[in-house]
Fold these 2 entries.
Entry 1:
Amino acid sequence: MSKQPPHDTARRLREFGVQVTAQRLAVLMAVRDQPHATAQDIAVVVRSEIGTISRQAVYDALGILADRGLIRRIQPSGSPARFEDRVGDNHHHLICRSCGRMVDVDCAVGETPCLTAADGMGYEIDEAEVIYWGRCPDCVARSRIRSENAAE
């Protein structure tokens, strides 16, 4: 993903009706640069960019950005919330059970097949959240190496 200069990011905030502050700019840029990061991870990045910022200010900025649709909040079971700026499409996520790595994965068939529930029960469905769990290629390879070394 190409990095937007701060003035483009400020314009984007304004387009979504969000007041531009140094904290919000830094949080949005951190989410863009670190997809699937936790609020704590984002706070570390923001502090390195602008100095002191409270944890609550980071949470507040993330909340506003998610509420306005600039970022997406992902809440995997048993994990802290993670944030990304890939919004407006209906993609899903793969999460490694071993190392926690999360990556994007597009819908398997068509554009939004998961939005067709077997029984929508009268709801107007506009989003589905699918999370696939397993082990990433790096963890699978490490496991194989450990198994091979143990067999020797």
Note: The longest strand covers residues 92-96.
Entry 2:
Amino acid sequence: MMKFFLSVLFLLFFVSPLSALEIGGVQLPDSVNVAGRTLTLNGAGLRTKLFFKIYAGGLYLVKPMPDAQSIINADEPMLVRMHFIYDGVSAEKLQDGWKDGFALTVPDADENLQQAIVAFTGLFKKQAQENDVYDISWLPGKGMEIRFNGKLQGEISGLDFKKGLFAIWLGKDPVDDDLKEGMLGR
């Protein structure tokens, strides 16, 4: 009986459960499955605005990569998870944020890219509440999948679009410097 008790005690204290990273009170898993591929958490950080925590953002890649430009340019599966902490980000604010971000990352977008940006921003139709999750996945040969709380909202094709989108988080003038550093695992 004592041996059993010690074994249980050992399991409780020394064997960790499936790990996850806590950021801003939110648990981000160490890995996610996207279209049959396992992607690993490269890093995570908080998107803040005026001292408010907006969302915990996690970047998931096939293999760890610390270089922002390599991630932006890569044509391999990846995902950004936006787990909202702030309760009540309106659809209009979400859309305006995307428009502002793309204006910085692709100011000279051609007509096809502009159409992709309009289609993408139009997928953010609902107010984001605390614990809502957007998963934005790049799937080579298919395009970008946008999921809201697990439900597919739409798909946008084009590697140029993907590069412009990921530059919002990881580019030279990112939406949030601390979020960028966290996503890069720094």
Note: The two ends are 47 Å apart (CA to CA).
